[in-house]
Structure formats: C-alpha cells, structure tokens
Amino acid sequence: MSVHSAPCCAIDFGTSNSAVAIPDGAGSIELVPVEGSALAMPTAVFYSAEDGSRLFGRAAVQAYVDGYEGRLMRSIKSILGSDLMDRTTEVGLGVSVKYIDVVIAYVRELKHQAEQHVGGKIAQVVIGRPVFFVDGDNARDKLAQQTLASAAQAVGFSDVTFQYEPIAAALDFEQTIDKETLVLVADIGGGTSDFSVVRVGPLQRAKTDRASDILANHGVHVAGTDFDREVNVAAIMPKLGLGSATRAKSGNATSGPSRVPSATYFDLATWHLINTVYTPNRLIELRQMVSMFADSALHRRLMTVVEKRLGHELAAKAEAAKIHVAQTGIAEIDLAAVEENLSAHFDADQQRAALAAEMTKIVAAASETLRLAGLRPEAIGALYFTGGSTGFGALTDAIAAVVPAASRVTGDRFSSVVSGLGIHASRHFAA
Questions:
Q1: Distance between CA 378 and CA 209 in Å, rounded?
Q2: Is the pLDDT assigned to residue 256 strictly greater than 80?
C-alpha cells in the first residue's frame, strides 16, 4: 500500500483490546497488523524494571506472566477522566511515569504500526469513544475525550476527530443490508456497554452527514472488566479472607460476627487498582491486620498475594474462569501460586448470581436507549451485537428480550467497531 492512499486511519482504543483500520482509497477498509500478524492487540503496557524498556500487547502480558521484574498496566482506558491521569505511578525501583504518559506510549505504538504498514506518515485519525467515558458526570466525560485527543496530538496526529463506537458498528453492519432498517446496536466491550438506535440502509450509505439517522445513544460504564471483577470477588477473594469473620472480642458475645474490611479485596480484583495495594503504606496496614482475622490462614494467603504481587495473575484467572464457565458451565480455578493445592470452584449458577446486578444495569441501558429514541420495541428491525463481551450468552439473551421481534445479528466481536471507524474516517476526511 502506498503512503498516498492512506492519509488517515481509525483507532479503536479499547479497554481490553485495540485495533487500527486504514481506508485503502478504493472504498475498502483494511485492518492493520498491530502485533505480528494479529489484527488486534491487548491494551497493555509492561515497563521493565530490569532495563527500562517497554513492551506492548501480548508481549507485555507475557513478560508479566513470565515473572520479569516490572509493572504491567492494563485497562488504561478506564482511568480516562479520573483524577489518576495527572498522577505518577512507580514502574520500577525509583522510576515513575504519569498515567497520561502510559496512554501516550500505547497510542504511539498503534500509530507506529499503522505507519509501518503504509510506509509513511499518517496525520489524520478517527478515534472511537464510548457513549460515556464516565457515567453521570459530563465534565469528566468531556475531560476524558480531551485527554485522549491530547495523547493523539502528542504522538503526531494533527487532525483528531471522534466517533461513537456503536455508531461505528452500525456503519459496518450497514454494508451488509439491502433495505432500510432501524437497528439497535449493542456494543458490549471491556469497559463500557453502549447502545445506539440508528437508521441504516443502501440509500443512507452514500450520506456523509448521518446525524439525522442517529435516533439515540446511551451507555453505562459496566462491561467485561466489571464481570471479571465480580467473578474474582465471588470466587477467588473469599479464599483470601473476603467476607470472613474477625476475631471475637470479649464482652461482645451477643452481637453477630463482624467481617474483615473489604476495600483491599475489591482493589485487588480491579485491574487498574491492583497496584495501589502494593504501596509500602498499604503493606504495613495489611500486615497489622493479622490480629483481626479469626482464621490466620486467610490473612497469610492475602499477604502472599500482596507480597508476591499476584493480583494481576489472579485477575487473569478470574477472566479465564468467566469465559470457561460461559462455554462449559463450570471452572476449577487453580490457586496453587497462593498456597499449595488451593483452588476455587465456580459454576454457571454462581456466575449468574455474581453478574446479576451488572447485567441488570446493562439491560436497563438498552431499554433506556429505546425510550430516548421514542420507539417501541417492535419498531426495531435488527439487534446487532459487537464487542468482546457479547460472547456471554446469558447477557445477549437478556438484551435480546428487550426487542424480541428484532432479527439478531452478531458482528465480528473484535473488528466491527474499528471497521466502521475506518468507514467514517474515509468519508470524514474526504469531505
């Protein structure tokens, strides 16, 4: 591909995975190999404490799993719009970086891969964004987009624009239909669950301005990584003492048993908060809690996880268990890294119970999108699923029940959005 055929690109900057698309100048969209031959790359950065180098994507995760000294950063999209952006975090002995610099480094890697692919510089970019980066806070949501735009400009993109991720998915879906249809797009990713009602069809495809075809957008900051956290909290953290009784105090026999504080466990189960548990002050605090535990073995397991920095490994095991239960109905989670012969059983009933509250929020967002569009469920002709978390059948079934008459279509879980962003980029920058 020549450089002149690709003055622009599209980036799907995801919570779990990211991808890049290039319009080829002839009306087609090409996905860029961003890590070897892979067309999507985990949104992860590993900072080596040994030589100061950085690794991205699968290589970053593998370096951490292999036990190299350093810091793994994942779910960095989740902190856009938060107070963490301007703060620094330690990535090695005596070495700190700002969280915003982690975002910049990752976006620079995506841009580098795209430019390597086309053989020249790319200055224009469309970046996908969720309907809400931050729920219920317009100022922080605006800040999140501004931060991502600043990161793109910092790596050399001079013309940066945004498109809603579910709208992009609708543009991709539109290439496949032959009549006008109202579609409810359900984009359930790693960090957000986004919905849009869009009018699509052959006549609409030629339009550059699609504002009149977008009937409603809505979303919630609940998705795959929240599922991982809830599985972790339900299946793994109790093995470390979550919900366990504190040591009884004399003179307090008539009251029910109190429970050990839970905040540490929820931080350990949340990807972007895990490293906050490893700070010296937290370590001192946790060591001093030993007298509080009725079962000292549980405290010992907790300290093993914190002192050996096993939080990300346990989070990965929770994610794997979630997927395995969705596929087979049962999972045995190996926790031998914490204690010899330790494991946790998790099954479909437990998973449904653990994820019920989060699923309810997502389904409610789908219903609210219809209300915002002023439509009854029967007006929707198609329900289009995209995003990595649409592999969870119980969730997609629950969303489908909102529009029972709609035809159910499943797009490519990992490329529909970036392909649609590429379509938008080709039209936007050609206009």
A1: 27
A2: no
All residues at 6 or more sequence positions from 327 whose CB lies less than 8 Å from its CB, including other chains: none
Report helix angle 348-373 to 224-231, nearest 10. Answer: 150
Q: What CA–CA distance (Å, rounded) separates 44 from 102?
A: 9
Helices (H), ranges, 232-295: 263-268, 280-288
pLDDT in tens, 132-154: 888 888 999 999 999 999 999 99
The full set of domains in the chain, from first to last, is 3-164+411-430 (3.30.420.40), 225-352 (no CATH)
Global pTM reads 0.84
Task: Round to whole Å and give the CA distance between 70 and 42.
Answer: 18
**236 DSSP 8-state letter:** I
| Spatial separation of the C-alpha atoms in residues 293 and 200, rounded to whole Å | 59
Q: Are 237 and 354 in contact (CB under 8 A)?
A: no
Q: Which residues contact 371 (CB under 8 A, 6 or more apart)?
A: none
- Check if the beta carbon of residue 314 is closer than 8 Å to that of residue 346: no
Determine contact, residues 189/15, Cβ cutoff 8 Å. Answer: yes
User: Counting Cβ atoms within 10 Å, is residue 366 exposed (0-12), middle (13-18) or buried (19+)?
Assistant: buried
